Every structure is written in C-alpha cells, then in structure tokens.
Amino acid sequence: MTQVPLRPAVAHLPAYVPGARVPVGAAAFKLSSNENPFPPLASVVAAICDAAQDVNRYPDMYATELTEAIAADLGVDPAQVVTGTGSVAVLNHVLNAVVNAKDEVVYPWRSFEAYPIAVALAHAEGVPVPVRADGRLDLPAMAAAVTPRTRAVLVCTPNNPTGPAVRADELRHLLEQVPGNVLVVLDEAYVEFVRDPDVPDALAVLAKHPNVVVLRTFSKAYGLAGLRVGFAVARPRLAAGIRAASTPFGVSHVGQMAALASLRAKDELLERVETVVQERARMLAGLRVQGWTVPDSEANFVWLPLGERAAAFAQEATRAGVLVRPFAGDGVRVSVGEPEATAVLLEVTESFRR
Ligand code: PMP
C-alpha cells in the first residue's frame, strides 16, 4: 500500500517523555516534571476566571500588555520580548528564525530533552557535547565544537536535568570564541532558583552581545506550567524574526492574563521560590549525609547519577509514593517540592544507598 512518507528526521525523532502523572486519588508526590508544588494564588485564579469570559475571541496575537509588563519587569524594550506557548515552543521559533537546512546546532547532552527534537524539526544537524561528570556544561568543548556550519549554540543554565548553572567567566570565554553570526541561546527556564553569585545576569550579557537570546518561562517559578507561557528576550531585529516565525495566537488570553497577574504578585511568588531553594538545600544535604555524590543544583530539582540503576530507583520511589523522572542508563531527576516529599525521597535514597 502506498503511504505518505514521514520526513526521515521526524520518523527518527527521540520521544519527549513527559514526567509521570499522579493517578487520580493517589497519595503520591509528583516530583517528575520540575513543577511548582504550590497551587495558584487566589489573585491568579481570579484573573483566569475573568479571562475565561472572553475565550470566544482570539487572544491579542502579540500579547501586548503582557509583553510590555515583562519588558518593564526586566528593564528592556518591549520590542525585545517575544512570547509563545511555553519556552519550549519559543525555542522552536528561535531556531526556525535563524537555522537553515543542514546547519549545525551545538547543544549540551545530557540536557533538556526537547533540544534534539527542536534541532531536527528545524532541519538542522545536532552536535551534542557531553556534560562533565560533575553535571556542569563543558563550555570549552562546546566552543570547540563550533564549525563554519554552526548557526546556534544552546546553553541550558541551570542545566536540566543535572542542576548546575553556567558561571560568568565560562560564559565570557564561550562568547569570545563563538563568532558573532552564531546565535547563543541562554535557556534560563529555572533562573529564579539560582543563588550562585558567580552566575551572570543574562540580560546584561545580552546588552553586550547581539548574538544572544535569553529564554524564560512562567512555568516554573511562577507556577503556570499548565497555561503554557514562555518568552524570548533578544535584540529587536532578532526578536522581530522570532515573532515572524511564531505560531499565530500562541498564548491564550487566559495564559496572558494569568501571567500578568503573576507578575503583579511577583514578590509573593518569589517568596515561594525561596522556600523551594531552602528545601533544595535540605534535600542535597540529606543526600550527601547518606553518602551520595550529587551535583550542586541551582534549579528546582536534583540529579542522582544512578547509571544503570536509574529505572529500578524510579520504580522503588513510585512504590514509596514519590514520582521521579528516570533517564534510562543515566540517572534520576527529582524535583524539589513539599518537605514531606523530601522526607519520603530520603527514605528511598537511604535504602538504595551504594
Ligand atoms: N527549558 C528547560 C531547560 C526546561 O527544563 C523546560 C521545561 N521542562 C523548558 C525550557 C520549557 O518550559 P515551558 O515550555 O513550560 O516554558
């Protein structure tokens, strides 16, 4: 039978595996998707309910009010901000705006699982560069992987799933070595959780380097993962290109209004982030007391480099009531959530100790 052939790149795409979901009624902690453990604020729910009145209309295509609020919050020009259906979609738009067929895109690995998919869908060739044994990105190796065919370098900072963030001197060296016609994407989905003082302010880096794009999201610190709102910050010319390559009406009216309400409640939401940061310290300390070697984390998750035992550990954790995210043969990522969840997790890690 004659069939419509899939693009070979699509037929061979690696799967994006979503974190395990909590079965309805199950008493389980969901630590599998780096979500915010707190329920939405009442003010955000009110904004969502109000916005629901208008869903028979298309949303503001360019999310004007939200874009202006993000720009004011970050101290940039609104022309530099492009919103989209979560930062994962914005990444696709960024690549589609700059990458030509057969260009190379350098990215760290293991890192965010959307990268190889986004690169393949952009008709580009991925050049994965191994992350160091300590979970840090190997920026010198990434710079060395740049060739005349390279069009973009993806920098995940903090790196999902290993946790460390790129430091200022490392990034400075990378940007010195990468030619100005190669885009450097700083994926900062977890930036609000960073406490390492050596991590640079990406917006200051962008002010100096026109080839930089910063990706951010309302999914993590702002707790809106279910509404899909992310954005890029870039120089206006690049931002206009990303906007042109974006899915029309990508952010719903409900999402726009919820993100605006979240920005208004920023201080309260960042207090919640601080409790997660403190819980992260407790989780890391508890693991290290048990003898685990785990990378420092600047994000809302920690990485257990379990190698071949990753899947078995995840099963054990599920039995104990915590859903975690295994990466077969490599390790397990555990999101930081409620203190009760940390307690259960540490019981599992204690029984699983090497
Ligand atoms: N970047 C990184 C590094 C992530 O871990 C994630 C979410 N897992 C995203 C981007 C995408 O987040 P969202 O699409 O929800 O904004």
Topology diagram in text:
Elements: H1 8-11, E1 29-30, H2 42-52, H3 64-74, E2 81-84, H4 86-98, E3 104-109, H5 114-121, E4 125-130, H6 139-144, E5 150-156, H7 168-177, E6 183-187, H8 202-208, E7 212-217, E8 230-233, H9 236-244, H10 253-264, H11 266-289, E9 301-304, H12 310-320, E10 322-323, E11 325-327, E12 331-335, H13 339-351
Parallel strand pairs: 1-10, 3-4, 3-5, 5-6, 6-7
Antiparallel strand pairs: 2-8, 7-8, 9-12, 11-12
The structure holds 4'-deoxy-4'-aminopyridoxal-5'-phosphate (PMP).
Residues 34, 86-88, 112, 156, 160, 187, 189, 217, 219, 225, 230 line the site of 4'-deoxy-4'-aminopyridoxal-5'-phosphate.
Give the ligands present.
4'-deoxy-4'-aminopyridoxal-5'-phosphate
Strand content: 15-25%
- Corresponding CATH superfamily of the largest domain: Type I PLP-dependent aspartate aminotransferase-like (Major domain)
List the secondary-structure elements in sequence, H or E: HEHHEHEHEHEHEHEEHHHEHEEEH
Subunit structure: Homodimer.
Keywords: Aminotransferase, Pyridoxal phosphate, Transferase
Organism: Cellulomonas cellasea DSM 20118
Catalytic activity: an aromatic L-alpha-amino acid + 2-oxoglutarate = an aromatic oxo-acid + L-glutamate
Task: Tell me about this structure.
By secondary structure, this protein is α/β, with parallel strands linked by helices. The protein folds into 2 domains: 8-40 and 267-351, Aspartate Aminotransferase, domain 1; 42-264, Aspartate Aminotransferase, domain 2 (3-Layer(aba) Sandwich). Helices cover 39% and strands 15% of the residues. It is built from 13 helices and 12 strands. It is globular. 47% of the residues are buried. The chain binds 4'-deoxy-4'-aminopyridoxal-5'-phosphate (PMP). 4'-deoxy-4'-aminopyridoxal-5'-phosphate is lined by residues 34, 86-88, 112, 156, 160, 187, 189, 217, 219, 225, 230. Belongs to the class-II pyridoxal-phosphate-dependent aminotransferase family. Its cofactor is pyridoxal 5'-phosphate. GO terms for molecular function: aromatic-amino-acid transaminase activity; histidinol-phosphate transaminase activity; pyridoxal phosphate binding.
